[in-house]
Write a structure and sequence with these properties.
single chain; mainly alpha; two-stranded antiparallel sheet
C-alpha cells in the first residue's frame, strides 16, 4: 500500500510525533506525583499505539491552526499538509519512536520495554558515563545539559543555513502545491 503513496515522510507528522511522548510528563506530575514521569508514551508499545494515535489526532486538529497563526502561513495549505494518510501515520509513529530512542542514552531510567522490564533497570549509557562515583543524578544533569547544548548548536546551524524567504513554510509544512493537490515534504 505504501508503494502507491508518496514515499517521503510528513514533516508535520514527524514534528508532532517527536514531541508527543513528553505530554505525559505534566500529566504524571499532576495525577501521579512521586511516580516516574516517563512511562507509557516512552515505551515501545505505548509509542506504536497510544503515541501514534495521539500524534495523528494532534497533527490533524491542532497543528494547522497553531502553525498557521504563529508563523503567518496559509491555513488551508497547512491543513492540506496534515491530511491523514498512511505516510502521515507512519511519520507520527517514527517521530515518537525516535524521541524515545534519543531519550534512552540520557535518562536515569528508561521504560522502553515497559511493562516487561522495570524502567529503573535500564540506565542510559551517557548518564552512567558521567555518573561520577555512581552519582546517577549528576550523570543525568551532565548528560541532559550536554545533549541540550549540542541540539541547540545543531538547530542554530540548520536555521542559519536555511534562512531566507519562505523559511517557516519549509520548516513547518515542507513544499506544497495546493493547486494541483500535491504535497511534497521538504
Amino acid at each position: 500500500m505504501l508503494s502507491k503513496t508518496n514515499r517521503r515522510l510528513s514533516l508535520p507528522g514527524l514534528t508532532v510525533g517527536s514531541v508527543i511522548p513528553d505530554i505525559e510528563i505534566p500529566l504524571m506530575w499532576i495525577f501521579f506525583p512521586g511516580v516516574y514521569d516517563h512511562l507509557l508514551l516512552h515505551s515501545l508499545i505505548g509509542v506504536v499505539t497510544v503515541g501514534t494515535a495521539l500524534a495523528v489526532i494532534v497533527t490533524k486538529l491542532l497543528y494547522p491552526p497553531i502553525i498557521s497563526f504563529f508563523f503567518c502561513l496559509e491555513y488551508n495549505e497547512v491543513k492540506e499538509a496534515c491530511r491523514i494518510t498512511p505516510i502521515l501515520i507512519l511519520s507520527c509513529m517514527l517521530g515518537a519512536l525516535f524521541h524515545v530512542l534519543v531519550d534512552i542514552p540520557m535518562h536515569p531510567f528508561n521504560p522502553v520495554f515497559w511493562p516487561w522490564i522495570d524502567p529503573r533497570e535500564i540506565v542510559g549509557p551517557v548518564v552512567l558515563f558521567f555518573a561520577e562515583g555512581g552519582n546517577i543524578a549528576l550523570g543525568f544533569t551532565i548528560a541532559n545539559t550536554l545533549f541540550t547544548a549540542v541540539m541547540t548548536v545543531l538547530g542554530s546551524i540548520i536555521l542559519a543555513m536555511n534562512f531566507g524567504d519562505g523559511i517557516w513554510k519549509r520548516l513547518w509544512i515542507g513544499n506544497s502545491d495546493i493547486s494541483e493537490g500535491q504535497y511534497e515534504p521538504a
